[in-house]
Amino acid sequence: MAWMEDERAALVETLRSADPDAPTLCEGWTVRDLVAHLVEREHMPLRRGLDALERRAPGRERFQGRLADAARTPEGYRALVDRFAAGIPAWSPMGWAGDAAHLLEYVVHHEDVRRAGAEPAEPRILPTDLVLAVWERLGPLARMAYRASPVGVVLAVPGGPRRVVHRGPDAVVVLGDPVELALHALGRDEVAEVDVLGRDEVVDRYLAAR
User: Fold this and answer.
1) What is the Cα 95 distance to its own chain's centre?
2) In angstroms, rounded to a whole number, what is the distance separating the alpha carbons of residues 134 and 192?
3) Burial (0-12, 13-18, 19+ Cβ within 10 Å), 140
4) How confident is the model at residue 98, as a pLDDT?
5) Whole-number Å distance between alpha carbons of 187 and 197
6) Phi, psi of 129 (to 5 degrees)
């Protein structure tokens, strides 16, 4: 659980200094909306499920929107960030899932805040063990993310491990550090610092489906 809590603390620090009205990489969400999402996910999982079922446009979610609306003053925003910073309540089913369910969520959403806007921040230099933890947890998420790819997909770390996440007769290799691979898998292609390698026609088929 240590890396999950370390990344939560780092994300909280970024959220406290961010402009609540600034955009994020999550289309339709401001920083305030993203914090509301994190709080709803951990403190109100039933309402999170209802919002998901309603499938409203991002930024127009019913219950998440109420949290965001209540945080439109400086005091309200600080209180919302404090609620996320306090951690997952003991009764919440989200707490039973452990580190695997939260580390990637925090890392990716952290970059959603840092790398949005006209002057995105550079990638962070993270502890080696945290980066390894991201790689270890990336497999199930990546298999889900690339399941509809028309070609096979192999994730690879420069000079490091490789993982097949989608099988096919033709394949591309997505090469990058684990955090960049996580961003790419979750659709942050415009900021993820990765290289897509393979035969030209295979790469074209892969990119056309993104």
Assistant:
1) 18
2) 15
3) exposed
4) 67
5) 17
6) -65, -35
Record the tokens describing residue 36, joined without a space: 């509301």
Q: Which two tokens stand for residue 19?
A: 């402009």
Helix (H, G, I), strand (E, B) or coil at 38: helix
Q: Considering only CA atoms, which of 75, 76, 56, 55 is closest in space to residue 67?
A: 76
- In angstroms, rounded to a whole number, what is the distance separating the alpha carbons of residues 102 and 42? 10
Query: Which residues in 25-47 are b (16+ Cβ under 10 Å) and which e?
Result: bbeebbbbbbbbbbbbbbbbeeb
DSSP string of 155-205, one letter each residue: EE-TTS-EEEEE--SSEEEEES-HHHHHHHHTT-TTT---EEES-HHHHHH
d(C-alpha 9, C-alpha 115), whole Å: 18
Q: Indicate the SS3 state at residue 142.
A: helix
Closest CA to 170 of 208, 206, 135, 195: 206
170-185 per-position pLDDT tens digit: 999 999 999 999 999 9
Cβ neighbours around 60 below 10 Å, total: 12
**pLDDT tens for each residue of 186-208:** 999 999 999 999 999 999 999 99
Looking at the DSSP bridge assignments, the partners of residue 153 are: 166, 172
